[in-house]
Design a protein that fits this description.
Elements: H1 6-21, H2 25-39, H3 45-61, E1 79-86, E2 91-92, E3 96-103, E4 109-115, H4 119-122, E5 133-141, H5 154-159, E6 163-169, E7 175-178, H6 183-201, H7 204-215, H8 223-231, H9 242-258, H10 264-281, H11 286-304, H12 310-324, H13 332-346, H14 348-352, H15 357-380, E8 382-383, H16 387-412, H17 416-444, E9 448-449, H18 455-473, H19 477-495, E10 503-508, E11 516-520, E12 527-532, H20 546-558, E13 563-568, H21 574-577, H22 580-586, E14 588-595, E15 611-615, E16 620-623, E17 626-632, E18 646-651, E19 654-658, H23 664-673, E20 681-683, H24 695-701, E21 705-708, H25 721-729, E22 733-736, H26 737-740, E23 743-748, E24 751-756
Parallel strand pairs: 4-6, 12-13, 13-14, 14-15, 19-20, 20-21, 21-22
Antiparallel strand pairs: 1-3, 1-5, 2-3, 3-4, 5-6, 5-7, 8-9, 10-11, 10-23, 11-12, 16-17, 17-18, 18-19, 23-24
Length: 759
């Protein structure tokens, strides 16, 4: 099997893809391909048999996220006493503690959280530790699932960790634990002590980086920096990876062997015993385990004098990790780590033959970025083309300066004079680096936004990229160029799908207690938004960016949208326009339309490049194949709600009326002014408040569908029971974001269908 372990690993990958896309036909094609290779004597009998067994085994071994851990017969939303064991380290911050709890005789785990008031409160809780047997009196709930397309799905994320429920403790007296001894407990306890030691002996500005890059705890790095690194494809530098482990191994090798502290044999045993411990201390991420296990396996192979190449080693580790944890394949870090590793292994000859260190770094950056590009688009929908060059600069900076300095700061911390010198030097240099990155971000932030690639495009991309690198290795530059061009064609073709699609959509996003509608025209002839609400901070009453970051931006990026033709703002309340400034900062917006009576002091537009139009009743806005008629307001009512824009349009074979937050008086004016007006889809005004939705208006309009954008369990009592009863008495189908999540109408020509995110 020497030199052939990549076949079983590839077989496992094929099975994973087949499970992921629910297409057994992929397995059939793979079997035919294997038999063809065997027929052509490109694969021997033993690798063939192992590959077939690997395919069948992993196809049934890998769970589907949508059906795995489907909770049944578990009482929810009522207090009960849980009996079981803590199966994770205790994560503790300045605001909360959290851990994972495994109930006895249950296949499901529970994520437990407690928000504390200070460290003094936690001092008596010494028995709360990994492995402790506990009883917990609490209320268990299902985790929040994504209610919008493109939104981060917390429930799905927990499922990848085998967690089906969550619970928030109200009091520490509800927890009773019995301490247990075990090596993992002592390792996790040492980790917590080490984190506390770092906080007390290293400056705050440096400590957050030491915690992140030595122990895998990035909770101290501010969100702005994390977002900055993520935008530029540098997030891998904030997580402990094979790079960090490689540096640790190099330092240990230098200390033990080069400085003649121990023999090579003893050094090998120290690394074999120490690396698994460090993997746990560093947070146990897949990339850390991959690097540590690879090193351990290489040492074992050397001792046993086996002849196994590096590709075999990484293939074995790949299979081992999946066997130990069958949900690890859904971990993004696992996918990125192994993709880059395999990519660099396949390109090692191309990289090694170049004598220039700079060009080698360019090759490494290029191969790494090109390998993860489909995954980057699939999970994050965007890609920074300049990140290829930026990685060439920043990866060496982290490799040669930042990561070694982190370990130096930790080692020299008992010697105050040395530690102070290194601490001050790091903070000074690193602040210059962060400023440099912010300047780059300010002037060169032009990402490609194309949305997730299709599975077919991803498959074609990787097959083409492998051929591209093969011809580069053979120095057939002309043929390699054609395959490189084909890579571009694959990406551009997949990204262009919306521009060739006859389908359009209207989406009512679930933004909580607020409004946000997105209209996508067929063939991407226009993208229009009607309102973009936000929540506000209770401290200063200003709009926060949480709705934009968690809902609106991910949705638009998932659709491959980076430019918006027009935004209608119904009125100036935060729940209708609070996210507009954030949209203007991150997206190209061509025009904004407001009413004649919109408060001048609340205008979100400061960019002269954006066209601002004011409209009133009787105005018509034409946008290619779409026409909006303004039905209100006609005069200033001295109230933002009553001055709301009311828009009528015909789209996808239906007549739509968007009503903002108008009251019954404005509704009466509209039906009086337009006595023949009827609609199919009515946006229920003011989130279903009693002040709106008059019976006479419903009698005239005769709508079939009522859309209510409203926050779950909101304090306003929206929608009012009387309004719901009135809508039901008019035989209307009611779709509301608090129960159905985002609601979408997909249409082609004059026919369409409504869909909801939540069942």
């Amino acid at each position: 099997m020497s030199g052939n372990w990549h076949y079983p690993a590839l077989a496992a990958t094929v099975s994973i893809v087949a499970v992921f896309v629910e297409q057994f036909s992929i397995i059939v094609v793979w079997f035919i391909s294997l038999m063809f290779l065997f027929y052509r004597r490109r694969i021997a009998a033993l690798p063939l048999m192992l590959s077939l067994l690997s395919t069948i085994f992993f196809y049934f071994y890998i769970p589907q996220l949508d059906v795995m851990l489907n909770p049944v017969n578990q009482p929810l939303n009522e207090r009960r006493i849980l009996s079981g064991q803590i199966i994770s380290p205790i994560n503790q911050t300045s605001e909360m503690i959290s851990f994972t709890f495994q109930e006895k005789a249950s296949p499901f785990s529970i994520a437990i959280t407690y928000f504390h008031s200070g460290q003094d409160e936690l001092k008596p809780l010494v028995e709360l530790q990994f492995g402790a047997e506990c009883t917990i009196d609490t209320l268990i709930e299902l985790p929040n699932t994504a209610t919008n397309p493109g939104q981060f799905d917390y429930a799905k994320f927990l499922k990848t960790k085998g967690i089906a429920y969550e619970a928030t403790l109200s009091n520490l007296d509800d927890v009773n634990c019995r301490k247990t001894d075990g090596i993992l407990h002592y390792i996790f306890q040492f980790r917590m002590q080490l984190l506390s030691y770092i906080d007390h002996h290293i400056s705050e500005d440096a400590a957050v980086w030491v915690r992140a890059l030595v122990l895998g705890d990035d909770s101290g790095i501010d969100d702005t920096t994390i977002d900055l690194f993520q935008r530029w494809g540098l997030s891998h530098l904030l997580a402990i990876s094979g790079l960090h482990v490689g540096l640790v191994i190099s330092m240990l090798y230098f200390i033990f062997i080069k400085m003649n502290v121990t023999t090579k044999e003893t050094a090998h045993w120290i690394m074999m015993l120490g690396l698994p411990v460090y993997a746990i201390l560093a947070g146990g991420e897949p990339s850390v385990w991959r690097a540590c296990l690879m090193t351990l396996l290489v040492i074992v192979i050397m001792k046993l004098k086996w002849r196994i190449n590096t590709t075999d080693v990484i293939s074995m580790i790949f299979l081992l990790l999946i066997l130990v944890n069958n949900t690890i394949i859904y971990h993004v870090g696992f996918q990125f780590s192994f993709s880059v590793t395999f990519g660099l292994l396949l390109s090692r000859r191309v990289i090694a033959r170049d004598e220039s260190r700079i060009r080698q770094l360019l090759w490494i950056s290029f191969v790494a970025q090109m390998t993860i590009l489909p995954l980057q688009f699939y999970y994050f929908y965007t890609f920074q083309p300049l990140s290829l060059l930026l990685n060439v600069i920043i990866v060496p900076y982290f490799t040669l300066f930042v990561i070694p300095t982190m370990f130096i700061l930790l080692i020299t911390s008992p010697i105050s004079l040395l530690q102070s010198f290194f601490d001050h030097s790091f903070v000074t240099i690193h602040s210059i680096f962060i400023n440099f990155l912010e300047i780059i971000d300010h002037y060169f932030n032009y990402p490609f936004v194309i949305g997730p690639l299709s599975v077919l495009a991803i498959l074609m991309y990787y097959l083409t990229f492998i051929r591209f690198m093969q011809f580069i290795e053979r120095k057939k530059q002309a043929t390699a160029f054609y395959y490189g061009f084909l890579l571009v064609v694959i990406l551009v073709s997949d990204a262009s799908r919306p521009y060739f699609s006859p389908w359009g959509s209207v989406t009512m996003l679930d933004v909580g207690q607020g409004d946000a509608f997105v209209i996508e025209m067929p063939y991407r002839k226009g993208v229009i938004m009607i309102d973009a609400g936000a929540t506000f901070s209770f401290n200063d009453q200003k709009a926060t960016n949480s709705v934009f970051k968690q809902v609106i931006k991910p949705f638009l990026h998932a659709k491959g949208i980076s430019s918006i033709d027009t935004i209608f703002i119904s009125h100036e309340d935060t729940d209708h326009m609070g996210s507009i400034p954030f949209i203007l900062h991150d997206f190209t917006v061509k025009s904004i339309i407001i009413s004649d009576f919109y408060d001048q002091g609340n205008l979100p537009v400061s960019n002269s490049k954006i066209n601002l139009y004011r409209v009133k009743r009787g105005d018509t806005i034409k946008m290619k194949n779409l026409v909006f008629h303004v039905l209100s307001p006609t005069n200033d009512k001295s109230s933002p709600n009553e001055n709301s824009l009311v828009l009528y349009t015909e789209l996808g074979g239906k007549k739509w009326l968007f009503t903002g937050d108008i009251s019954k008086d404005e509704e009466a004016e509209i039906i009086h002014t337009y006595p023949n007006l009827t609609v199919d889809v009515l946006k229920i005004a003011h989130h279903g408040s009693q002040t709106s939705s008059d019976k006479q208006m419903l009698d005239q309009l005769k709508p079939d569908i009522g859309l209510i954008s409203v926050g779950k369990n909101n304090t306003y009592g929206h929608p009012a029971r009387e309004v719901i009863q009135l809508l039901e008495s008019h035989d209307m189908s009611i779709l509301r974001t608090d129960r159905h999540g985002a609601v979408q109408y997909h249409f082609k020509a004059n026919k369409g269908t409504f869909f909801q995110v939540l069942p």
